[in-house]
Hints:
This is SnoaL-like domain-containing protein. Pfam families: SnoaL_3 (PF13474). By secondary structure, the chain is of the alpha+beta class. It contains 3 helices and 6 strands. It has a single domain, classed as Nuclear Transport Factor 2, Chain: A (Roll), CATH 3.10.450.50. Helix content is 25%, strand content 45%. A hairpin with a 2-residue loop joins strand 5 and strand 6. The chain starts with 7 loop residues before the first helix and ends in a 15-residue tail after the last strand. The mean pLDDT is 89.
Amino acid sequence: MTIGISTVQDVLENYKSAVYEQDAEKFLSTYAADVHIYDCWGKWECRGISSWRQNVIEWFNGLSEERDVLKVDFDDLTIEENTNVAFAHCAVTFVAYREQPEEKLREMTNRFTLGLRKVNESWLITHEHSSLPIDMKTGKGMFNLK
Length: 146
């Protein structure tokens, strides 16, 4: 489903609101059918929207079961775009809250790189790469360096 998002910034705003609402279809609406994702959670990579859909539904179901609300912020955002192709990178922070009463539970910041293309006047994410720096001594991801 293409929803007519005319700016790359609108893609990111859709991402934020869809995560907060835990609306998988809204979230997936800005991803191309042939999306290629390298994620730092679960699967190493997802190829195609159906593979990515499985991850997203699992993610949102987990949040729902725990009754968590997730807020997303993009920092240090850089966007480069031309007529039909765009590239963006940023630090993205996910903060989980318990809805009632609002209580901060956990926070994580990682890095995002996005490749987008314009299809029928709407921007779609064709590639997404999320990553964390690794502590070379422990081999573990470092979640809150920002």
